[in-house]
Amino acid sequence: MDLAQYIKSISTAATTILEGMAVTFSHLFREPITVQYPDKTDRPVSEMLPPRYRGFLEVQMDICTGCKRCERACPIECIAIDLVKDPATKKQAMSRFDIDMGKCMYCGLCVEACKEESTGAIRHTREFEGAGPTLDHLTFRFIHSNQLIPLYKAPKDLSEVPVGEYGPHAREARERAMRDNPAQLEELRAIWRQQAGSKKKKAAGGGKKQGKVQIDAGKADKIKGNVVQTPKGDVKKFALLLETLTAQTDCGACGYPTCLEYTTAMASGADRDPSKCEPGGAEATADIGYAMDVYWKSPEEADKAAFGGGAQAPAAGEPAPAPAPAP
User: Fold this and answer.
1) What tens digit of pLDDT does each residue of 109-161 get?
2) What is the C-alpha separation between 215 and 159, in angstroms, rounded?
């Protein structure tokens, strides 16, 4: 290598390094592009997504030919289409067009089959917000019950097909799924109570008894401090404090619709039973009972009831005194 090539190699290496570092250093002066979703968006997120984004599927039923190409193209069978004869017209009609979005893997094969060989009635949208309490809320039904949709006769020139706006059909199907499939909370609570009752009967039949759980000293100090700071008569504040000691599942096993309603009843004195929180078990019973003793009686009496003998709770980390043997 002669001197000229050597100098040229050094120049090329230096130039390459400077070009790369220029790109790196330019980011020091750029504003961040992170957007907090959904609080700080200038417009709906669906409008900010790219045109080819694969969101929820939708079907424009007025241009659907009922060819079932999409159903056959789906590799996981999440599309279901039923054809029947319309008694009024004696012609084929669609009575069902369901898409299970809980199973859909957003591969787009159904969209390609419809777009290339039919009218493009099924397509992906930019809609993606579909959280629901049950899986039934993810089944989009594009035909109402007891409704028949006539088959669309496609023109020879597919460019004449009146394709509508993307999105409204998916939103309508999602709203219908939420409306027609309400979460059966009362039935679930009834099942919970039945199962809890069966467990109690089984335990009683086997001669099992639940032992009383001793509250932890450190936890007792923390609960005591919070209760002492709660003004007497402030039912709302005390109820919120008691709610933190429950399992906070709103299961209804306590006989109240929510945990807060149960703790409100205890805070107001209408219900003095701290043992109704079945998911929380004996630990929640001990914590709630201690808090109520501090509030309704005094910290000294609460310590005496929880730890026995002395009027003070043992310091955190020290073992609690053993309970007196049963006579």
Assistant:
1) 999 999 988 899 999 999 998 888 888 889 999 998 889 999 999 998 888 99
2) 75
Confidence of residue 291 (pLDDT cuts 50, 70, 90): very high
Q: State the amino acid at position 143 in one-letter form.
A: I
96 pLDDT band (50/70/90 cuts)? very high
Which tokens sit at 99?
A: 């898409």
The residue ranges of every structural domain in the chain are: 48-156+164-179, 217-307
Residue 198, CB-side half-sphere exposure with 13 Å CA sphere? 6
| Distances 9 to 19, 23, 263 between C-alpha atoms, Å | 15, 22, 79
In the structure encoding, which two tokens stand for residue 165, read together?
Answer: 């706006």
Structure tokens at 32: 């961040």
Alpha-helical (H) ranges within the chain are 3-26, 45-48, 69-73, 109-117, 168-180, 185-205, 217-228, 235-243, 259-268, 281-296, 299-307
Distance CA 232, CA 238 (A): 9
Cα maximum dimension of the chain: 106
Q: Answer whether the bond into residue 38 is a cis peptide, omega within 30°.
A: yes
Pick the CATH number of 48-156+164-179 from 3.30.70.3270, 3.30.450.20, 3.40.390.30, 3.40.710.10: 3.30.70.3270
Q: Please tell me which residue, 122 or 33, carries the higher pLDDT value.
A: 122
Cα distances (Å, whole numbers) of residue 107 to 61, 103, 104, 179:
21, 11, 8, 28
pLDDT at 68: 95
